[in-house]
Amino acid sequence: MGVGGDPGGVSGRYFQRVAGPMPRVIVALTMQDGRLVRTRRFKKPSYVGDPINAVKVFNDKGVDELVLLEIGDKPFDESRIQFIRSIASEAFMPIAYGGGVRTIEHVRAVIRCGFEKVVMNTALHRTPQVAAEAAREFGAQAVVASMEVGSGLFGGAKVMTECGRTATKWKPAEWAAKCEQYGCGELLVTSIDRDGSMEGYDLEVIRAVAGVVTIPVIALGGAGTIAHLRAGIDAGASAVAAGSMFVYYGPHRAVLISYPGAGEIHA
Amino acid sequence: MTTNAAPTRQIVEVVDLDTGNIGSVLNMLVRIGCTPRVVKRPDELHRRHPVLLPGVGHFSKAVDSLERSAWRPALDGLRERDWPVLGICLGAQLMCDSSEEGDGRGLGWMPTTVRRFPSVGVDGKPLRVPHMEWQPFAPPDGCLPFAMPPGRVYFAHSYFIDPNPLGDASLCESEFCGIRFTSVARRGRAIGAQFHPEKSHRYGMAFLTGWMQWALAEIPAA
Asked: Is B4 a domain residue?
């Protein structure tokens, strides 16, 4: 760190030297109709706790970033907006919301609540112009493409939509390039097979995707240890996300929350 | 100004250019004990309180709002009186002359250009833009006009304030893959912060609280 001396002036200029990129460690919370749940391979949602309380705890822990993903079937309506607004008002860190965002009005509603990022998945397949419009209006940094990767019928990774229920023809790398073209500023890559496993990311997919796009890539699905997070970064991710690793429940169904200190990850 | 007024929550006037997300700024101001007053039209500006110019969105769109709703003369009027104004992210970039993001003239308070991060860093490696990162932030005493503890702050931007033409107006600088950019610019009582204090936990709270207290003490007499 170099501080330029300026004996005659009121102050010196301050330069923060940064040795290298500092990957973000993101907490990904899955909700079903407003209840915090944990899933395995996108199935068997089990109740974990109250999202507002969890956000408060993560806020106190000083997490880098939060991603909230709603997997319930209910429509994106006024009651959902009110609910996610109450969550955003507790979050003094970057926070993203995804789930049921289909139109530019939905995007505006989410942003107005106090989220600075909107996550889109199914909408990118049906109406990609919504992403482009959102990026023009709020900047690319506000639009996150979520790509859920599963196994195709004959093996090989395939992009899925609608919370893993519907397969598309896209290979992850091809679809990633599309998302960047649409104007998305970030790419959340989730492995469906690894979801909830805590056995590590699908590094092959992360590598393939990070190799074709120039926007930041977030790895999600499978992280259970600090070593897994590091491996995701080594594979090319700019940020690493996890749910189960940070949120789980104990014998009394209390939400236990753990989040590593910055030193543990950036070491 | 009366000195024996009952203590009230301090008011901050938040300029709403209708370009993006002011929700998170309002949340944070309430959290630090302020009462944000959202100002949608320049003729509604009280000119009695510190002014915050937030902004998430596109430079050209914000410039359009400056022109269309006569915000430009109102804000320039504040600058002429050396009013305490804090610009955040796009708000800070708007204080500059122009931006590579799009057409239109900025406010021109900070004599520099807003540039796009190149696709390759000085190390020859590709840059992943937008730059989204928490970085250490620990300006020494006397650098900022108010004190704050060392900590870290959150950046999310594809464009950066070029520090070179700014000279001493570039108070704090940081880097992204070797590309040096201004993180805090200052001209008189106008301050622009590239990072998001409203999204930087307790460090952002400390920054905004420090600015608020300083700004209140610095409001020019009528």
From this structure: no
- Taking contacts as CB-CB distances below 8 angstroms, the residues of chain A near B204 are 92
pTM of the model: 0.93
The reply to whether residue B199 touches residue A88, judged by beta carbons under 8 angstroms, is: no
Q: What is the CATH number of the domain that holds B148?
A: 3.40.50.880
Each residue's pLDDT tens digit, A158-184: 999 988 889 999 999 999 999 999 999
Cβ distance B128 to A238 less than 8 Å, yes or no, reads yes
Specify the fold of A24-259.
TIM Barrel (3.20.20)
Check CB contact under 8 Å for B132 and A239: yes
Tell me what ipTM this predicted complex has.
0.91
Q: Where are the domains of chain A?
A: 24-259
State mean pLDDT over A230-240: 97
Burial of B202 (0-12, 13-18, 19+ CB in 10 A): middle
> Is residue A173 within 8 Å of A200, Cβ to Cβ?
no
pLDDT at residue A256 greater than cutoff 80: no
Residues of chain B with Cβ-Cβ distance to A186 below 8 Å are 130, 132
The DSSP output letter for B102 is B
